[in-house]
């Protein structure tokens, strides 16, 4: 430290030299340029040899002054070069031979805290924050459990990714739900220079389950206490964050603060910005012991290696056991125990400037922080009310949060140039597949869509369902975009069983959907509906990808492959479960057909029985589906026979057949090459037939298509000739693939297509 201070003094002296030597020199030159009180010109152009004042001595004096001036300028140039070298070397000479570092001017230094003097007793008079090296990996640990936390953490991650310039390694302590959601999200997000590791939170429950906790975070709110034991033993330091954090700056700035720790400081924390630990919020309020106002644990810097050497595990356990004898339970989860340990061992904590954790709790005094510090860095929504918290500046903070909440996550797939990244097999395979496509092909965009990886967030809302124990349960599967959102409530009223939906939305639309769902009593009363968000990318609606996502994430042995525009008949769920048993679907390859009808009326008195439906057909209120524009699609269902049928009957596949069917969950996926409008269901039914599925029509089942405005894709199909040409090309290629895969049996599809 003494060496650093001496270096600073040398730096200051050299700087003063650079500033004052030229000034003194010019004063001297300027004073010497006067003779008898009158200025003497030093310019050769202005020198006049024939002037009576021009003498040999004055010329020599002028020449000597010019030489001296050049010498001073050369000395200054050398000094500036030395200072520049000293500046570039001093922050990183202990850190290896990396080529570039972020300086304080580039935004990673904590210059505000040095100017404001916020960290009392923690900053050295001559301690400058070392820079974070360009490709240094920053480690971040987050405890995340359940559906809501998995959704909230995405906004935190977006805010970090938006500002970051370093590789990131997220350590996620997650339960089984959060791991499934976040593993899929990051795998499909494909952000360069980001690594994700998961740690089983359920395995850690036994470590903290003995601590009674009243906080809404539950048992997971105590798991930050065991990070020294959970995270890899070779990990020396980590930034620990709550899921309700929003970053407004590069996280590298916070990472750089580790270099300010000295002595036995192992915890970096911001002071609590409420009076909670002062015990004066209400009568008989008795908080856990804390040092002054205590510290908030929404943002923590942990020096893991030193904590392990100090036997942190034993330290916090002994403290918790002692305090629980009188306190009985924690009120603020891990925060109470951290503060009790710090109360006894104040030397452990390095107090971070308040702008690293601006707390927006109900009783916050955070205005005292951001009134003095304009450059806020981290916002913490540490109230159960979250965005609805009472705060006079809440609109400002809410807008900052909403910026990242609705920000297009696809834009965060930025390369960190100059930093080596781990080989990603999925990314490499994708690039290889795309490189094999011909960009001059008029159908290139269609072909490219087949390989596009769409960011996917599974179970966007809470999902809770256990399939029936009799193995007859059926899930309704459908996909939709924002313009079909109004169908959800009606479908939920018609179908009481589980539903799996894939929604094609932008980030902003996903938040609109969330608000719509949370404001709907019908949707909020249903916990057996899985909403899977597939984020928008590209120019086509990836209808078959969406169907595959919805199919893949069902928990029942059977599924009803429907579309969002259809309302199933009342009681269809129970009827299908009985049909599954009756037709032995478990042991046979059958596709049970639910006959499809349509109405042109937006307001329909929905038929409650087959007899009522037949009456409406006769009156012209209902029609067989697409009879007037695409008869071939459903003609093989044989509606004439269905009118009088009382038992299931078998029908044969025909060209362009696309019924809605009930199948086992192990049926083939939809072919992704078909996007937008055209042949997306036809190809799937063709593959079922190629795999020798038997098509059986259910005599007492029906579904009705509700009217809506034409989709954007069908409009493109009708108006764009190239669209139709490409669709025809994809059909031919699909049929060729079928012939190669299924051999002689698939020749009938080519023949049927030619005859249709």
Automatic annotation (TrEMBL):
The chain crosses the membrane at residues 12-31. It is a single-pass type II membrane protein. Pathway: Protein modification; protein glycosylation. It catalyses: 3-O-{beta-D-GlcA-(1->[3)-alpha-D-Xyl-(1->3)-beta-D-GlcA-(1->](n)-4)-beta-D-Xyl-(1->4)-Rib-ol-P-Rib-ol-P-3-beta-D-GalNAc-(1->3)-beta-D-GlcNAc-(1->4)-O-6-P-alpha-D-Man}-L-Thr-[protein] + UDP-alpha-D-xylose = 3-O-{(1->[3)-alpha-D-Xyl-(1->3)-beta-D-GlcA-(1->](n+1)-4)-beta-D-Xyl-(1->4)-Rib-ol-P-Rib-ol-P-3-beta-D-GalNAc-(1->3)-beta-D-GlcNAc-(1->4)-O-6-P-alpha-D-Man}-L-Thr-[protein] + UDP + H(+); 3-O-[beta-D-GlcA-(1->3)-beta-D-Xyl-(1->4)-Rib-ol-P-Rib-ol-P-3-beta-D-GalNAc-(1->3)-beta-D-GlcNAc-(1->4)-(O-6-P-alpha-D-Man)]-Thr-[protein] + UDP-alpha-D-xylose = 3-O-[alpha-D-Xyl-(1->3)-beta-D-GlcA-(1->4)-beta-D-Xyl-(1->4)-Rib-ol-P-Rib-ol-P-3-beta-D-GalNAc-(1->3)-beta-D-GlcNAc-(1->4)-(O-6-P-alpha-D-Man)]-Thr-[protein] + UDP + H(+); 3-O-{(1->[3)-alpha-D-Xyl-(1->3)-beta-D-GlcA-(1->](n)-4)-beta-D-Xyl-(1->4)-Rib-ol-P-Rib-ol-P-3-beta-D-GalNAc-(1->3)-beta-D-GlcNAc-(1->4)-O-6-P-alpha-D-Man}-L-Thr-[protein] + UDP-alpha-D-glucuronate = 3-O-{beta-D-GlcA-(1->[3)-alpha-D-Xyl-(1->3)-beta-D-GlcA-(1->](n)-4)-beta-D-Xyl-(1->4)-Rib-ol-P-Rib-ol-P-3-beta-D-GalNAc-(1->3)-beta-D-GlcNAc-(1->4)-O-6-P-alpha-D-Man}-L-Thr-[protein] + UDP + H(+). GO terms for cellular component: Golgi membrane. Residues 59-69 have a biased composition (Basic and acidic residues). Residues 42-69, 83-109 are annotated as: Disordered. One of its GO terms (molecular function) is xylosyltransferase activity. Residues 44-58 have a biased composition (Polar residues). Coiled coil: none annotated. It is found in: Golgi apparatus membrane. GO terms for biological process: protein O-linked glycosylation via mannose. It holds the Pfam family Glyco_transf_49. In the N-terminal section; belongs to the glycosyltransferase 8 family. In the C-terminal section; belongs to the glycosyltransferase 49 family. This is LARG1 glucuronyltransferase.
